[in-house]
Amino acid sequence: MAEKKEQELILAPRPPEKTRRGQVATDYRLTEEARMLAGYGLSIDQMADYFQINRMTFHRMMGRDKKLATAVTNGKATILAEMAGILVQKAREGNVAALIFYLRTQGKFTEDNSQNMLPETPKTNYIIKTTDPNEAARIYQQIMTGS
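Request: output the structure for the sequence above.
Response:
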C-alpha cells in the first residue's frame, strides 16, 4: 500500500522552483516532462496547467529557454511522425478508411473537388459523310485510335 502512495506522489506534477527574481526556473525534469506531454498531444496552455504555472509564464519560459521550446516542438513532431507511420502502414495494408483519410488530408482529395478530376478533353463533332458501312467503320477506327 505504501508503495502505491509513493508512485502516486511521483506521478503528480510538482510546480517548478522559482529563481530570485520570481521567474520560474526550467530544469531537465521539466523539459523532458514537457516533451512527453507534447507527445501526448497536450497544448502549451494545457502543459502550463499541468505544471501549475500561469499560462503566460509558461509561454515566456519557452521564449527564454530554447531547450524547452525545442523539447515541446520535438515532442509534437515525434508523435506526429509515429502516428503518420501507423496511418501509412494501415493504408498499405488495405484499410479503406485509412486510405480515404490519408488522401483527404495529405492529398487534398475530395469527391466533389473538380480540381482532382482529369481535365475534360474538348468534345469534337465528327461527321462521316459516307453511305458505305465499311468505309464508315474504317474512318471511325481512325478517329478512335488517333491515326
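The mean pLDDT is 78.
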